[in-house]
Amino acid sequence: MPNPRVVSLLPSATEIVAAVGCESWLVGRSHECDFPPGVRHLPVCSESKIDVSAGSAEIDRQVKSLLRDALSIYRVHSHVLRELAPDIILTQTQCEVCAVSQRDVEQAVCEITGCTPTIVSLEPHCLRDVWSSVRQVADALGVPARGHDVAKQLESRVRTLAERTVAMPHHPRVACIEWFDPLMSAGNWIPELVEIAGGVNLFGEVGRHSPWMMWDDLMTSDPDVIVLLPCGWDIERSRRELPVLTERPEWTRLRAVRDGQVFVTDGNQFFNRPGPRWVESAEILAELLHPQSLNFGHHGTGWQLA
Q: Is the dihedral of CA 264, 269, 273, 279 positive or negative?
């Protein structure tokens, strides 16, 4: 039997496909799938309807406007899917904003004749769901044993890290900021990452969507450490938007700012993707929270001092 033709419209799913040894089966990707580097030559099957070069406040306005009108913020290219004739399409139902959704894919598939791919939708909300996603993708590809092995290895790495950090003498109080304007803290799997890395998470709940927050809440909690991990942005892009935070009068009164404990991370490549590099995300947090004890080599590329 020939290998299935796979289109991934979710960056974390693309990474899972590669992790279970099936990267060569991919025939198409989303506009956001860029890792591993070998997938970048694949045909792009989607695009964003919003201006991603805009500032955080304007991006938020565009997203809310589209969602208010019950419109998707992504466009799936049905003509490209028709040409690729995939057997399997990987997507998600976790968030209408984060990536192409199952609804988007189903609408595109309805426009295709002679092609009835299997749609596999992932819905990760927490650590346990990430391991389940690995197994789910591997099962869909017909390589369940590989999925089991990869998930087991990832679980082992996380468990080993947690065993190291729990013994740390100091567990700083951490605020993870997922959006700048309006202010949003990080939820879903991020609170678990903070705990695994040896910190105390202040905002957001495990398994629940990232909540909006007020500046008064941030000032009252006065965290020891602030981690910036805007959804979809790398370090350089986040740095360009930093004045949205630093020019506010409250900013310099925060303990983390005074102590030089504000860090900017590559949210796009790590924290926003619930896939195999979830472990690296935990390592990044562990490094910046415990720099004297832990060094996994992510400084400079995964995180920097703000």
A: negative
